[in-house]
């Protein structure tokens, strides 16, 4: 029998040391100065500082530019099952006042249960849709610990089904382990769509193959804000996906709602979501078109325009172009507004800061020559809280014409 390998030890640059001490959860490949041996995906790697003192422990991934994702920083710690359970309990405790976590009570049973790095599970998220938990992995470092994670979830939600979702960059590695995107890890899932509740409204989530984990849960608070602004208004929901904002606007008393999206599949989902909520009486129309081409000629026929595009900057090199695109969208949305109308514009591009995004939108308003005022800005929903800069992707601004 071969001797066990020594613990994987890493030394990093002084700058990386400072970042880790400051709570940053990522150590990049370029920051690793030396290590005592090659490591495997999912190993626990220990960072020692320049004085040879324990600094942090994390999940190692030799195939990722994020070479180590920090689990714990400070005094040495043993990552026992009890330690992992306490970490999950902390994440659940943050959400209990919001949702009565993993219980049947309340009017919302669709929300984020574990938010990756910000909840101490770097590269892993868990979303709930009714009695289904969707576990999404962004690094192969979690594969060796999958049974541990399933055990933690089973202990807290024994009757829930669990679906695995995978980031594209780890799909090939997963296949070699007999894992695949959309795989049901626990229980049975006889239908592709799961119906869940959000603020009393019913929605479907395509948990095995839909966008993200099946629905855009992170916009819940902004949907509620739109509901409060919709009474008597003609609402245009651009980049509507499955109609989340549209349903809230209808319940808020909108005079009419239009869902605009390039995807026929998404618009069909929006129609099904309206069917799930027969109490919604506002007329609902779907338009299949490219928002960037359709919106400039829409005319001032709306009193509330919602612009919630997919990420326009998936990498830093796309940031400047995205900023220009957000400004153009805002200008086109503004021209679709009648006097007194409201523009809600959102960005999920992490490479564009909140300040850059707001300036792009407000710059379009200033160039229009029309009188307007800012109603509010918003960031992440509380179950999607961000604990470090790179996690702060979502921002929105509400503006009203005088």
UniProtKB/TrEMBL annotation:
Segments forming domain RlmI-like PUA: 10-71
Gene Ontology molecular function, alphabetical: methyltransferase activity; RNA binding
The entry's keywords: Methyltransferase, S-adenosyl-L-methionine, Transferase
CDD domains attached to this UniProt entry: AdoMet_MTases, PUA_RlmI, RlmI_M_like
Domain S-adenosylmethionine-dependent methyltransferase: 194-344
Any one of the GO BP annotations: methylation
UniProt name for this protein: SAM-dependent methyltransferase
């Amino acid at each position: 029998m071969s001797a066990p390998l020594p613990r994987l030890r890493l030394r990093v640059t002084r700058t990386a040391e400072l970042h880790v001490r400051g709570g940053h959860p990522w150590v990049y490949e370029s920051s690793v100065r030396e290590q005592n041996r090659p490591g495997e995906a999912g190993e626990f790697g220990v960072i020692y500082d320049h004085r040879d003192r324990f600094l942090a422990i994390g999940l190692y991934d030799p195939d990722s530019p994020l070479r180590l994702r920090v689990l714990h920083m400070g005094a040495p710690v043993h990552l026992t099952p009890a330690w992992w359970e306490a970490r999950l309990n902390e994440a659940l405790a943050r959400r209990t006042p919001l949702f009565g976590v993993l219980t049947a009570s309340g009017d919302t049973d669709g929300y984020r249960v574990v938010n990756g790095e910000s909840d101490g599970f770097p590269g892993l998220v868990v979303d709930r849709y009714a009695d289904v938990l969707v576990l999404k992995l962004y690094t192969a470092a979690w594969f060796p610990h999958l049974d541990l994670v399933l055990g933690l979830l089973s202990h807290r939600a024994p009757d829930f089904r669990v679906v695995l979702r995978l980031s594209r960059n780890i799909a090939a590695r997963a296949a070699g382990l007999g894992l695949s995107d959309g795989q049901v890890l626990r229980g049975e899932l006889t239908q592709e769509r799961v119906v869940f509740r959000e603020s009393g409204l019913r929605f479907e989530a395509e948990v095995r193959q839909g966008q993200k984990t099946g629905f855009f849960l992170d916009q819940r608070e902004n949907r509620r804000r739109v509901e409060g602004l919709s009474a008597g208004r003609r609402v245009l929901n651009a980049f509507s996906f499955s109609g989340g904002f549209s349903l809230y606007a209808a319940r808020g008393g909108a005079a009419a709602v239009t869902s605009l999206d390039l995807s026929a599949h998404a618009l069909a989902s929006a129609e099904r979501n309206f069917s799930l909520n027969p109490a919604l009486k506002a007329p609902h129309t779907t338009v299949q078109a490219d928002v960037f081409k359709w919106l400039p000629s829409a005319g001032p026929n709306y009193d509330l325009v919602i612009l919630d595009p997919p990420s326009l900057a998936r990498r830093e090199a796309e940031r400047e172009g995205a900023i220009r695109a957000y400004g153009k969208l805002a200008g086109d949305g503004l021209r679709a507004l009648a006097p007194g109308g409201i523009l809600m514009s959102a960005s999920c591009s992490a490479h564009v800061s909140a300040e850059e995004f707001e300036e792009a939108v407000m710059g379009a308003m200033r160039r229009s020559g029309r009188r307007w005022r800012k109603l509010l800005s918003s960031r992440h929903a509380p179950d999607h809280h961000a604990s470090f800069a790179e996690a702060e992707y979502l921002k929105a601004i509400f503006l009203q014409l005088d």
